[in-house]
Amino acid sequence: MMYRDAYIAEVTKRLPQNMREDVALELESTIADMTSENPSQEELFGALRQLGDPVILASRYLERPLHVIGPALYPTFISILKIVLPIALAVSGITAALGVIVGYSDEASWGQAIIQGIIQIVGAMIQVGIQSVFWVGLVFALIERYSSSRDTVPLSKWDPTQLKPVALPKRQISRASVIGGFVWTAIWIGIYLNASNLIRLYWEDQSMPLLNEEALQFFLPAVVALAALEVGFGIYKWVKGFWTIPMAIWNLVFNLFWIIGTLLFLTHPELFSAEALQQFGNLLGLSAAEAENMKNWAIWSLFVLFLVIATIDTVDGFLRTRTSGGRKK
Amino acid sequence: MTDRVSPLLTELRRGTLTLAVLSQLKQPQYGYSLVQALEQSAVSIDQSTLYPLLRRLEKQQLVSSTWDTTESRPRKYYVLTEEGQQVLNELYSEWKQLSGNLQNLLEGGTSQ
């Protein structure tokens, strides 16, 4: 009876608490019905084979799919992955390579530098590749789980009057724009990850990082989350195909995140390395206060620029939801 | 049976399962007796489909269940509810029409 109980446990452990006892009892009596009293192991196995894989049996009791991404979404998932992955790999590879080149110092021998550089570049690409597949997969899993499934909506409820007019060109979201968005995400996250190598203060034949490594590390989780959100939103736009009001609202929320994040980032007191600022002042013959002023000026112009872009993007999202422009009754 | 036919056959049978199960539940039946009753009429049903199906029908209030503990081992009996009986009748008449139509279609060969 050890195998019988093990089988039943395999099924019931996948079920909610309130179903377990009843299902276990029913399976127990069913298996007893299928076999003679005190069955041999072979006989018991025969009965269990008829009942089949306990995982499948449990999923049928649950009436829930066994898949994370089902056939309806799978083709889109693959096509998104085919776009996201090369972009992510290319951009992470290029930015890492730039970082390696800029960060090159004479101290190491050529051979050493090349090997180290390759390790750094490949490492960055692998990391970014895994991250992209994970986040894209997560977005699709969530869509699969929480979107109203086609199977459960009775077809009889559908009526031609529900048909929306074919989206006006203005409302349509071109795939190119979504892909452009992915490229944009990949570029800024690539720059961010290599900021200490790429964003530097250069003078004569020297350079030093302009930003503090600690501050960059501090913001990293938020930056990754923001990038994931941006990619997730891009996928959502791709799947939907045209602008809707909820989408415009999400766009607003997303842009708010962007702006708040940028504000927090730019105004972080430790963002700029004091050393670099001092060097900057020395180079231009500015006093510490003047250099500080200039820094603030740069920060706020940058922020205003982002604010303007985000505002335009948000407003554009809402404008695009309008179906006007000759919609017939 | 060729490999090409069997998946199609599974699909063909799937829709008739509910009707087959409901038809056998005018009298109370427990899981395994139902399997045997269906098999006697050469209707084979995957057991891993049957038990969850019974539970779903119960949730839809087409059948009701009771545990009988008087015998040597407890058994869960399922029987049609009044609503289930109505549904069965409707499905049955639909089925008769459907199979008749299909028969015509298959034997008539061409349309019209």
TrEMBL record, chain A:
Keywords: Membrane, Transmembrane, Transmembrane helix
Keyword Transmembrane: yes
TM spans (from-to): 83-105, 117-143, 176-195, 215-236, 248-267, 297-319
Pfam family, one: HAAS
Protein name per its UniProtKB record: Uncharacterized protein
Automatic annotation (TrEMBL), chain B:
Database matches in Pfam families: PadR
Domain Transcription regulator PadR N-terminal: start-end pairs: 19-89
Database matches in SUPFAM superfamilies: Winged helix' DNA-binding domain
PANTHER family, alphabetized: PADR-FAMILY TRANSCRIPTIONAL REGULATOR, TRANSCRIPTIONAL REGULATOR RV3488
Designated name of the protein: PadR family transcriptional regulator
Organism of this sequence: Chryseomicrobium excrementi
Source taxonomy: Bacteria, Bacillati, Bacillota, Bacilli, Bacillales
